[in-house]
Every structure is written in structure tokens, then in C-alpha cells.
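Final report, closing paragraph on structural work. Over the funding period we assembled a curated collection of sequence-structure pairs, and we close with a single example.
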Amino acid sequence: MARMNEEGQWIVLMGLLVAVALFFLALIVNQSALVGQTTAEGVLEFPKNDIRDLRSAVFDYIDRYEVLQTHGHLGDVKTDIVEISLERKNAVVHFWNETPRDVSGRQLHPVTIHYNNGVTEYDETVYY
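Its predicted structure, as stored:
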């Protein structure tokens, strides 16, 4: 029997391999774009400025703690901070301070801050 010419089969086989490789590369590029998009959306949803504003208000409250306590406005200011956060930012906020503790030779107040806007929940304890 005469030997058959197999060169055409190799060309078709290599074409098939290149097509499959291109398909998988396109699939990987598509998935990486989706991951980048969801990561960017997660960064945009984090309320960094809202939490900074809350921390600033809480630290101002702690700075004026003794003055507010002597005038009897301690609970009023705390209630105002909680209600303003709920009204303007739709965020549930809770914070409290504890008795001062010795931290590296300084008396600091442990201040615990809780922030939850339905998407992001943030808890922090700061020695202030």
C-alpha cells in the first residue's frame, strides 16, 4: 500500500489546538475583568469619610466629656451623634468609653466605636 500524505492532518490538528488555546485565554481575560470590577465596587462602597466624620465627632465628645458631664449635657450630645448618623447616613452608630487605663505610662480612655450602615460593619477600640 502506498503511504498516505498526513501533512494536512497536522495542519488541522494545530489549528484546533490554537483555537482551544485562544478560547481559554479569552475566558481568563474575561474573568479577570469581572474580578477587577467587583473589587472596585467594594472599594467605592466602603464609607471611609463617614467613619472619619464619626471618629472626629466621638473624639470631640471625649475631649469635652468632663465639661459636658458637669453641665448635664452628656447624654444629649451622645444621643444627637447617634440620631444624626441614623438620619443623614442611614447608619446605626454606638460608642462608649471606659475608665482610663495605664498605657505606656499614660492614662488613656478606651473608646469603642461601632458603625453599621447595612453594607459595611465597622468596629474599633481606640485608646484616646
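The mean pLDDT is 84. Strands lie at 92-97, 101-103, 106-108, 110-116, 121-127. We thank the funder for supporting this effort.
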